[in-house]
Each structure stands twice: as C-alpha cells, then as structure tokens.
Write a structure and sequence with these properties.
alpha/beta; OB fold (Dihydrolipoamide Acetyltransferase, E2P); Rossmann fold; seven-stranded parallel β-sheet; six-stranded parallel β-sheet; 25 helices; 37% helix
C-alpha cells in the first residue's frame, strides 16, 4: 500500500505483528483482543469515527459528560500533593476557539516529560468541577502527530480497559505503513459491475478515511467480501450435496400415497398442493432433495411430510422422522398413526392391504421394546421410524433409508442432523421443517444450501386466537382475572396450558431451564438491565401446587417438563389428550408439535422472559379445534420498556412471518450469524442481515453462478481463500451444509 516500504521487507496479511509493532504491543493485542497477525489487526475495524469538526468544544462542556477534545497545552505545573506523597501535574489546555480547561494528573511525574506547553493532543475524560471550575481529572490523552493534524476523522476502535483505542490506532498505522497490497479475491468483473473499491484501498480507508464517502465505500466493499464468503461456502456445499447419488422415488400409482389422499377428510390448501408437488418432484430425482418447508403455526407441514414419507414407502424404502424431544417424537408417532389409520398398521389385525408400519425409537424405551424397534428398523419392516437423536446413533441401522424428515431443525446440533444424511453410499433425501418463519435474509445467509418452500395460508378449521397482555405492574388485580378466565374455559368443556420459564427444584437441585424443552431459554428476550434486582423466574414445581390449593382448587392439574421420567411424560401427555386433565402446567417442552384440539387457553407466566418466536410457537398450541383460542401474556415489566414492546407486538399480530422479521430486528444479529461460525471466532464483522439484504441477495446469485462454472474454485484461488477466511477450513465450511 505504501510505496516507501522498500526496507520493510514483505509484509502480508499472514505476517506476525511482533516485528512491526513490537513485542509489548503485540502481546497486548493478542491477550486483550485475540489479534495475532497483520490480517487480524487490519480486520479489527473502527467502531465509529469522530469527525474532527464535531469534537466537543471546551466552551460547551457539561458536568458529568464524557468528553473528547483536541487542545493545546498552555501551562503545565508539577507540584507536591498536599494530602499525600507524590507529585501532581496541573495542566491548562486551550482549544481552537480559545476556551480553556483544567486537567489534573496524579503521579504527574510519569507524564510531565510528555505533557508540556505547546503539545497538541486528544484529551478524553469525565467532566468534573474543582474550585468552581470545570476540569478533567486524570484524562486519557494521545499526542497528535503531524499527519493527525490534517486528518479530518479520528477512528475509535473496540477496546478494553487495558488497551485503549489510541494504542490500537497507533498499531494499525504502523501496520498500514508497511503492508503490501493484498491479492484481491473478488473477480474484476464483479468489482466493476458493483462499483467496488479494491481490497487494499478498502482496508486503508476504513481505518484512515479522508472523507465520509471513503469509509462508506470501504465498508461496502468489505461487507461484500463477507457476504460472498458465506454464499460461496453455501453454494459449494449445495453443489457437493446434489452431486451425490440418491434413491429416486417417483410417485407410484395405486400405492400408499394414493390411498392416503383418498381417505383425507379435508382438501389440501393451494399452498400444500404446490409445496407437495415441489417435494414430489425432488424425491423423483436421483440426487438428494435438500428442502426446507417453513410455515406458520398450524399451516399443515405434517401432512406434507407424511405424504413425502408415503411416496418413499411406495418405492420400497424407509423414511425417518427426527424430532427434538421425546414428548414431540411420541406425539408425532401417535399423530401419524391416527392420520394413517389402517394404512399405518402393517402386521396388525385390520391393517390395510398395502399398509406400512410406524415404529417409535427413543432413548428411554425399555430393553425389550428397544430391541424390537431396532429390529423393525434394521429389517425394513418399519416403513416410518420416528425418534429423537437416538435415531442417529451408530448402532441404529436402516434397511434402505430413502428420506429423512427433520422437524424443528434449528433445535438440533449440527452433527446430529448430518449423521443421518451421511449414511450409506447413497444419500437419503432431506426434508427439513420449521414452524418458526425465517426472514429472507436469514434464509439466504444461514439456510442458503436448502431449497425453501413457504406455506403462508392456514387450512380451513383453524380458529382465531385472541392474545392479551396482562400488565401486573399497572394492573395487579388482573392476576385474579387470569385464573377466573382459566375456570371459564374449563367450565366450557375445554382445557388450558399454563407455561412457566423454569422447572424448579428437582431432587434437591434447582433447574433454571428445561434442558429438554425445544428452546431452553437461549432466546429469552430479557433486556440487559431489565433483569436487575428481579425475582427468579416462576417455576412449574412452585406454581402448580399453589394453583391446585388456591385459585384453581378443584380442577384436575397435570405437570409436564423435561426432567420427568419418559414414561411419566408420555402418561401425562396422553391424559391431557384424553381430556382427563383440565390444566397442564408445563415448561416450553410443549412449544412445538403438541396438538390437542380441545385446548383453547394458554397462560404464559413471566412472558417477557421468552423470545418473540417462542411466544408465537406457544400461542400456536391453542385454537387448533373448532373453538376460538385465548392467550394471556402475564408480565410484571413496566409499560415503558422494550420487553413490553415485544409482548405488545405478539398481541398485535398472529402473522408469524411479520413477527420473525421483528424478532430479527430486536435480537442481536450475532445470535443468528454466530450460527454460521460453528463456535469459532467470527469472520463476520460487518455483515448485517437487516441492512445488507440487497448485497446478500446479489452475492447469492454471483456465488451460484461461479460455483456452477467452477465447482472447486480452482480458477478463483482468491475466492477459495475468502471462503476459508470467512467460515474457516473445509471442516468448518461443511457446517454451513448442516445448519
């Protein structure tokens, strides 16, 4: 970058920092910020810029504010401290407008040789008062060099208490002075078409901008690098997946699928028919289907999945349905049996002629039942196998696995989902389902290796759900009304869920979250600061007995959470399904897949402790029958708080796609983009799912075209390096295919 570097040797992005910035500074950068190479440092971008023209004037300072001023030292006096040993340096500084400010430095002898009259420097600190005059007490300061004097912007870096922004800026300048121009990974045609700066110029201008347009152009270029890195990784993995052979399973006339369609008591929605046709066409090809079906709560995804499984069965192959919890796996197995009727009773009396067998395989099965399930799976007698992660253990063998259906895929670990896909010489088809609608940018960035189908309409028969926020901070008496409302639902012959964010004291040990719940509280939605001095979240094991002895005395209450023994969980869920319980007090273990049409009410306690998508999923447990549903969001958060804004948003719409977009706006994007990073230090520093939607969409198109013409990126080594830099080596890049 700098032509005057002939004596500096060859310095590139992989060079060590020690020879350039010195061992002390290099050690500090490594220890405090994990910056080890030149590339690490130059990609530690400024957090913001201070416009020299907008620095605080001394004349406009206010007591208590943190100010940054550029000023010249007028007077510096070193004297003994009065109350204790040591020297104090009293300094008077003056800004360009002539206003003066006192600064006081303790242990002044350490800085007296630097802070002398005539010095121009950047001073930063908290404004206080002494002897009726404003002053900065022991401010941070940075002497300004000649080139600093003409720089219009000062870069402010993410720093630590032991390594300030000025020290980082000094190291960056040292590196930029000797750094060779890096090879630009983006092809010239792409840069020209999108009007992008060269990489070398972008890296310089993001640190040392001359104009406001400089750093905007630099950031835009570097955002493109990150977007292309992610999209190329996804395109490479997508190409590798579809290049593998898979069992072709075309539709068969007169088979199980036709028989099932004939006995359906309802008509498929237009959306179900369209998505079903896409899935059927994918299954017929000799390459793996890799499709995500997203739909709002109750959109009818299960029917699509079952029809796909039957199409595979009609071709003599097995299908596996993977669920995140045992409660949901058991629920799925029962639902499939009900939907299929005699068509799912192979080997039983009354079975249809071409019936298949549904086998449940979970980790908690007894020895005999587990042995039988394993035998049915391995022999091929079971056409549909439903289970949890137990399905992907090495000793679970399939006779001929043709399709894997993953329900609520984001609840699974990466390697868990990929273990089934990698079985055998031929890859099974993969159908992924989620009832949490995904914003377009998230889909492109995190699920870009999947073909995506969306169900936006709800089947006939879904009842409306009225959602109300119960604000106990302003209206504490409404709490009694909540329990009267529960009794009203039960008196009408219906059932109610009561959800708590915590399990409670299990066997002498307090369980804060439910580890078997589909979402164990990671997306709690609690604002930093709002949780201070708050009581612990309400727990199932505390709430249930109090209600049974008090407000809900006389009603039949059940308890459900992930810490219960599996057989007890199943028994409780079955009792609720048979209407033998009026009220089910549960954790978020009921969040997905639980389908009890007679349940019309749900009370979510401490609702502010859940995320938007989680609340929407929980609300979807009601309104599944002919009677309207009611959802009560109980909170103690004050009216003026972001937590209440979230709850009001849930109450204001039942559109899961709208809530998903809002959820992304409210959450830290790192939670989403971090999933791309497979637990490593993020290579994504500037990419924003909300601000860079257009760039992500364009990058996806460019990446697909490049990989289609150059599957291994042999002709584009710079792009291959960009993929490695953004998402890691091949093992880490493979993660993107498994999300």
């Amino acid at each position: 970058m700098n032509p005057d570097r002939s004596d500096a040797g060859h310095i590139d992005l992989d060079s060590a920092l020690v020879p350039i910035v010195g061992k002390k500074a290099a050690d500090a950068l490594a220890l405090q910020l994990e910056l080890h190479t030149v590339g690490d440092l130059v990609r530690h971008y400024p957090r913001r810029y201070v416009d020299r023209g907008k620095l605080t004037d001394i004349g406009g300072l206010e007591i208590g504010e943190h100010a940054t001023v550029v000023a010249q030292v007028e007077k510096a006096t070193l004297r003994d401290m009065r109350a204790r040993r040591g020297k104090l340096l009293a300094v008077v500084i003056r800004d360009e407008k002539g206003a003066q400010l006192d600064c006081t430095f303790f242990n002044g002898h350490k800085v007296a040789h630097v802070i002398q009259p005539g010095l121009r420097a950047l001073f930063a600190g908290k404004v206080g008062v002494f002897n009726h005059k404003l002053q900065l007490t022991h401010p941070q300061f940075e002497p300004l060099r000649e080139d600093d004097e003409i720089r219009p912007f000062i870069s402010v870096y993410p720093a630590t208490g032991k390594l300030n922004s000025w020290e980082i800026a000094r190291c960056v300048r040292q590196v930029l002075d000797v750094l060779d121009d890096p090879t630009d990974p983006l092809p010239p045609f792409l840069r020209q078409r999108e009007g992008l700066a060269e990489l070398g110029r972008a890296l310089r201008r993001i640190h040392v901008p001359e104009t406001e347009g400089d750093y905007h152009a630099a950031r835009n270029r570097l955002v493109w690098d990150e977007a292309m890195g992610v999209q190329l990784a996804l395109a490479l993995r997508r190409h590798a997946t579809v290049s593998r052979p898979a069992p072709a399973c075309p539709p068969q006339t007169g088979g199980l699928l036709d028989a099932f369609d004939a006995r359906l008591p309802f008509t498929l929605t237009a959306g179900q028919q369209a998505v079903g046709a896409e899935v059927a066409a994918d299954l017929a090809r000799p390459h793996p289907m890799n499709r995500l079906v997203q739909g709002d709560v109750g959109a009818g995804k299960t029917v699509i999945a079952l029809r796909a499984m039957l199409q595979v069965n009609d071709n003599g192959r097995q299908a596996a349905l993977l669920a995140p919890t045992e409660v949901l796996a058991s629920q799925h197995a029962r639902s499939l049996r009900v939907m299929l009727g005699p068509l799912g009773q192979a080997g039983e009396l009354g079975a249809a002629e071409r019936a298949t067998k549904i086998t449940l395989l979970t980790g908690s099965l007894g020895t005999a039942a587990r042995r039988k399930a394993l035998l049915d799976t391995q022999s091929g007698e079971a056409g549909i196998v439903v289970g949890t992660h137990a399905l992907i253990q090495d000793h679970v063998g399939f006779a001929d696995l043709g399709l894997v259906v993953v329900d609520e895929q984001h609840r699974f670990g990466v390697e868990q989902r990929d273990a089934l896909r990698g079985r055998g010489e031929r890859a099974p088809h993969m159908l992924v389902m989620t009832a949490t609608p995904i914003p377009r940018t998230v889909a492109m960035t995190v699920y870009g290796d999947l073909e995506i189908s969306s169900l936006r309409e709800l089947p006939d028969g879904r009842s409306p759900i009225a959602t109300t926020v119960v604000p106990l901070a302003e209206k504490p008496t409404w709490f009694e009304r909540v329990w009267r409302r529960v009794r009203e639902e039960v008196s009408g012959g219906h059932q109610v869920y009561i959800v708590c964010p915590r399990v409670g004291d299990v066997g002498g040990k307090d369980t804060v979250v439910d580890t078997e719940a589909p979402d164990s509280g990671a997306d709690s939605g609690v604002d930093p600061g709002e949780g201070t001095a708050r009581r612990p979240p309400l727990a199932v094991l505390d709430v249930a007995p109090r209600l049974a002895e008090g407000a809900l005395d006389g009603l039949r209450l059940g308890i459900l959470h992930g810490k219960l023994p599996p057989d007890e969980k199943d028994a409780v869920m079955r009792a609720f399904e048979r209407a033998e319980l009026d009220v089910l007090v549960a954790t978020t273990v009921i969040e997905v897949g639980v389908d009890v049409p007679n349940a019309t009410g749900i009370v979510i306690l401490d609702a502010d402790r859940f995320g938007l998508s989680q609340l929407h999923q929980l609300r979807g447990r009601v309104g599944r029958g002919s009677a309207p549903g009611v959802c009560l969001l109980v909170t103690e958060m004050p009216e003026v708080s972001s937590a209440r804004e979230r709850l009001d948003a849930v109450a204001g719409t039942t559109d899961g796609f709208a809530l998903a977009r809002l959820d992304l706006e409210l959450r830290r994007e790192g939670d989403v983009l971090g999933a791309v990073q497979s637990g490593r230090r993020s290579g994504l520093r500037l990419l924003s799912l909300l601000r860079h939607e257009e760039i992500i969409a364009k990058a996806q198109v460019y990446a697909a075209d490049l990989v289609a013409h150059d599957p291994g990126l042999q002709a584009h080594p710079g792009l291959a390096a960009l993929v490695a830099e953004t998402v890691g080596d091949e093992e880490r890049a493979a993660y993107l295919d498994k999300v």
